[in-house]
Structures are given as C-alpha cells and as structure tokens.
Amino acid sequence: MIAQNVLKQLAEDLKLFAKAETIFGEPIEIQGNTVIPVCKMSIGYGGGGGEGEGADPKTGKGKGSGAGAGGGVKIEPTALIIAREGKVSVVGIQAKGAKLEALLEKVPETMEKLIAAKEKKDEKAEEQGEEA
Questions:
Q1: Best-predicted range by mean pLDDT among 22-36, 44-58, 101-115?
Q2: Can you tell me the distance from the alpha carbon of 102 to that of 108, in angstroms, rounded to the nearest whole number?
Q3: Are 85 and 22 in contact (CB under 8 A)?
C-alpha cells in the first residue's frame, strides 16, 4: 500500500508539468511577426515497494517495509508557429538532439526568410503599381 501511495503522489506531481504552457511557449514578437515555440514532452515514472519479516542477526526477529519511486520529464523543441501578416505557418525543427539551443538558432534563419519573402512581395507590388 505504501508503494501505491508513493506512485500516486509522484503521478500527481508530474501532472504539474503537463500543461499547455509547457508545450506552447510564450509568444515572441520579432519585427512585427509573432513566433511561438512548440515543444514535445515525455514523462516517465516507476516505483515499487515491499514488506517482509526476517531474522535480525542481533535480535533474532524483525519486520520491515519500504517503498521508492522515481520519475523524469523530457522537453524537446519541435517547431515554431509563425504568425505574419494574418497568415500562420508551422516550421518544424529537425535538430540532432533537439535541444533548446537548436530552437533558438532557428529563429534568426526563420526571420531572415520571412523578411526576404516580405521584401519580394513588396517589390512585386511596386512593379505591378508601375505597370498600371
């Protein structure tokens, strides 16, 4: 029964991490664009316990019980949601090891692509305006 209570408490504690705020990061405003990091979360836990009676070498009698549990949470960046000029796109992160650094490294590259696309759109609009 002790092990069951320990595991139940561990599961309750790990649920504190399982929130939308953990998966979807705080929106970041960059040059009029909104970037939201998206993460994948993995949770694992386990435990066990037991009771027993045995002969204590000193007293010749004895009883005992024990329980233990452990758990872990792994959070990996997986994508960026980008809102730009009323359009939303998702950019996957294909990083080896998928570390936070990889997510942060993708932001400048993604922003450069967004800026280049906007400049191209603006140039096209200017060309169409000159033809009219």
A1: 22-36
A2: 11
A3: no
